[in-house]
Predict the 3D structure of the following.
Amino acid sequence: MKVAVFSLMMNLPNAVTGESLTAQQKFHNVISQAVLAETLGFDAYGVGERHGAPFLSSAPPVVLTAIASRTTRIRLLTTVTVLSVLDPVRVAEDYATLDHLSGGRLEMIIGKGNDPRHYPLFGITEEEQWDSMEERYRLLKQLWTEENVTWEGKYRPPLREVTTFPRPYQASIPVWHGSASSTRSTELAAKFGEPIFSSNAFHPQAKYKALIDHYRERLAYYGHDPAKAVVGAGSGSLYLGNTTEEAIRRYRPYYTAFSATESAKHNQSPFHSLEDQIENGPALIGSPEKVIEKIMNYHEAFGHTVLSIGVDGLTESEQQEQLQRFAEEVLPVLRREIPSRVWESGPVLAGEETAVLSES
């Protein structure tokens, strides 16, 4: 299994120490976290997108570019790009630029996002989110793969003979489809034969499994081999302790603080306590053995070969402690027990595909 560390850059006073970071300090914290993730051997680092307090992640390509300048190997993900509200021309240009600056390490995860505040901010209604995302994604793919694009749609002005620059550094920037609540996302992913990434954060396993199962069914419908489906999944919160009891005790103040935020209330999680969330949800709170057991249980249900974990909100020393413990005590077992071919080879760069075909 491959593992990505990700951040939504939520900037709240620390639930244990009361310490508050300035915006600049939080940006540096996230960059340092990504550098540490690469040093510890994690496979990818992701930055989400939100457009309102307490999140500072309104410009993922800018933050990921800063991370790219400090790292050399780790893949860079968007977790997620809220494409339902963005101009595909701007997205094509920004992320193609990041693709060059990272040496082809970019992979995009697209989604409609789960914060309703961004819809009025960018001029669409919540009812339009799925239609908007599909139209914008089709245009984005066209802009990345074709030149002199002429296009007309509902959610941006028409284009005539447009070629965006720079062209992507990779022959094709990999795109995953974020999956959280609707078959509209899994349908779109299956239609294009592209991977999905289940959020798997706030609800019981069965909800997310139903969407993943739908994705595989629709892959077959569109003529793709469901046995080759690539699935990633989130994991809720992470906190490792020497015992599960210790992990629960140390994490409880963070759980209480997170549960009180407006974003947590919006997610309408059915779990009524931390213990309930650990027992019946995806949270990875416990001893390394218990956490491994839970991940294996979810893998059996989902068949995913990429996992994302997050340590936002903890003190900086705890972030380092948790990532190091996961890398040393959990990651080796996952790699041994769950083989994954994702990210096994380097990126295919523009022009290389043609060269390979001409040699065959």
Observations:
- Residues 2-359 form a domain with the TIM Barrel fold (CATH 3.20.20.30).
- Confidence is low (pLDDT under 50) at residues 354-360.
- The radius of gyration is 20 Å.
